[in-house]
Amino acid sequence: MEKVRWGIISTANIAQSQFIPAIFRAENAEVSAIASRSNKVHAIASRLDIPKAYESYEELVADPAIDAVYIPLPNHLHKEWVLKAAAAGKHILCEKPAGLTAADAEEMITACQAAGVKFMEGFMYQLHPQHERVKEIMASGEIGDVKLIRSSHSFYLENRTGDIRMDKKMGGGALYDLGCYCIHAVRHLSEAEPVKVHAVSEIDEAAGIDLSANVNLELDNGMSAIFDCSFDMASRNEYEVIGTKGTIKVPYAFRPDTNAGMGVILVETAGNSRKEEIHGDLYRLEVEHFSSAILTGSPLAVTADSTIRNMRILEACLTANRSTNAVSVDIR
């Protein structure tokens, strides 16, 4: 089978612990190289059995033997390296959020389209089959008319000094790190777009970032959604769909890998309840999905339009963070 040759731009923990092992499990992909800005990359490449190690991102991007790159760099570096990778003719899977602004995302995507390369924002959670099953249950009418979607994504951030998630210039804050998932899930499940945002947040004034945010969304189909995200709460990664006749709860919505890949769906209607379990190798599914799109031209799960819209809503949430008024979203 033909395989996509991947280069990894950064030795970030998510690359080492999740994405690179997933490439080895994938049927249509292989790891060709990894890059860092220090000589530690050689030891990491040796330990992970990666053939080539580069001490600069530029060298990796210039390697003609690489088809696609994975970019798990800090948020503020996404735009720079997407543009450079696109100019070098590499397909790009970039970690969420795509950039710091919707304008950044539009510029990145335009550059990729002009270069004829594929770009996808790394909302890996969507590739797990539990979400399509939730949409099937919603469409079946079992829980009646859907009135509200609620989502939570949080963890308690230890050792905050020096953590990039606490650095405003690097795209820190709970909304950038966690809230973007909740926004995406609301849009994916509802197949609607938020048009108005109201937020109540806890701001770390010294760092200038949001530690927590509680957000109400008004959707263009008349539905409502609520989400919270936080660096100051216990670990949660869940959503709930509430209808006129019942509810659907998904307790491992964004990180089923923390439950050995097992997605759990809890359905309650009129005193009856049931539990469905659906397994999925989350990061392998992401690697194989993007690699297949490169090899066969199959459509991407996270489209360019979806990425830009998600960033517009995220920007509105960030604006609403410091306002007592609702903020409108441009969803053109």
From TrEMBL:
Similarity remark: Belongs to the Gfo/Idh/MocA family.
Any single Pfam family the record assigns to this protein: GFO_IDH_MocA_C3
Name of the featured protein: Putative dehydrogenase
Gfo/Idh/MocA-like oxidoreductase N-terminal domain boundaries: 5-123
Gene Ontology MF: a single term: nucleotide binding
Domain GFO/IDH/MocA-like oxidoreductase: 132-248
Oxidoreductase is among the record's keywords: yes
Keywords of the record: Oxidoreductase
Domain of life per record: Bacteria
Organism: Planococcus koreensis
